[in-house]
């Protein structure tokens, strides 16, 4: 192996069945093909991607990237990856806080966790000391677990854990990281629970070696200059000022805010629950991931996290709730129970449409508690809707509940939802950037023209971002050109926009290949029928028309062509061979 810059050269394998830990030193070629993060984790998942979440051999993966732990802006990220218990797709979650950086500084590029402990356990990493320990914390909520761990561990330790929802078998179970930085979707918390893994702690005192610190300083300054000039990120109406809740008014005014379970596209009470209203009520302070200058998270005076845009929209407009405190309590309870707030809010909306009953403050919280205890509610919107004989009320793609952007208001968004490898997800291609925020260039949001190629390129760029482990939000200001320079400075290898895009393409096609092996076809690259048959009703006499299905199918076909897929949505042999994924 060549000299390591931007990586430790070590992947830690932990077998919970035996309680043993072993080091692996991957070949240079593996790093060059997948870089790290989501890309490298997909490489390790691939041989086991057909395993169920209850199979001890299914790996739970946590990987950093070359930029993690360096001076590169917004590089305190990591990727949690496995097969989703909710959808059966490949699934990843981008996590922040301090955990990824401390894992890297402990000497590891990634963790591969397999096996199943006979009793509830925790993993404790302190530099090169790795322990699998029995724990009595099973059954405790995430706040209680993290607070107890903080009492006995050094201050510079990062913590992650699951809550009661995952322990009780809910595929909506998420992962809490350093109190403020969870948000892992797809039920990956249930993979932890199936392994009897309650928590992970990491402390690292090492340093990440950088090949050319001066060149990294130059790349860093260029990225920060672009960030500071970005109204979306740093302006007085941007994320740094308001948090991601800054999007609420904008998305509502564009008539694409999902309301009443996606039957409407405008929330008439939006002014009571938008970012300025929350700021006036809760007087929040700034908070961000380790090493980030944007500080897009906000903490209320009472210590609760202010919900981000997605969570706030789903606990207000989507379920017909105009009470900001009820939304705050609901999202906070999701965090403590270890529930994904997007999926939980969507399941609440589905239940409300089926029963016709609105939520009170008390019934909102009691329903969430029931969701974390098991039964049909715990299984997500699609399973609930099917159990009630109302499958049309589940607003999901591949079983994953949709986030807070209505696809009738953006046709690139509609295509991105449908073809996303993890299900209903806007972050695989983030078309909101060009269709709403006009970055890097504006596109017509009510046409499919050109969107197939745009979505494909955006997927590749974001997959490359996830492999480097930079924050996706930074790409509202900077781009791969700037990050290629940062990567070159850190690693000593000559990276370009094209070489990064190739890694992103390999990552995405690898995920589609794994999904195809698990039975996913073109029929799964689709949207709920509601979006093709019902207009988005809103105020002011504005009606957002339904999506034309034939135009959508043509756009999906065009995407398959530019992505190198066959008519069933599977990667062609030519594509697999070109990317070195044939086996």
Automatic annotation (TrEMBL):
Protein's UniProt name: Aldehyde ferredoxin oxidoreductase
Recorded GO MF terms: 4 iron, 4 sulfur cluster binding; electron transfer activity; metal ion binding; oxidoreductase activity, acting on the aldehyde or oxo group of donors, iron-sulfur protein as acceptor
Alphabetical UniProt keywords: 4Fe-4S, Iron, Iron-sulfur, Metal-binding, Oxidoreductase
PANTHER family noted in UniProt: ALDEHYDE FERREDOXIN OXIDOREDUCTASE, TUNGSTEN-CONTAINING ALDEHYDE FERREDOXIN OXIDOREDUCTASE
Family to which the UniProt record says this protein belongs: Belongs to the AOR/FOR family.
Cofactor (UniProt): tungstopterin; [4Fe-4S] cluster
Every Aldehyde ferredoxin oxidoreductase N-terminal domain range: 8-206
Domain of life: Bacteria
InterPro entries reported for this sequence: Ald_Fedxn_OxRdtase_dom2, Ald_Fedxn_OxRdtase_dom3, Ald_Fedxn_OxRdtase_N, Ald_Fedxn_OxRdtase_N_sf, OxRdtase_Ald_Fedxn_C, Tungsten_al_ferr_oxy-like_C, W-dependent_AOR
Gene3D superfamilies named among the record's database cross-references: Aldehyde Ferredoxin Oxidoreductase Protein, subunit A, domain 2 (1.10.569.10), Aldehyde Ferredoxin Oxidoreductase Protein, subunit A, domain 3 (1.10.599.10), Aldehyde ferredoxin oxidoreductase, N-terminal domain (3.60.9.10)
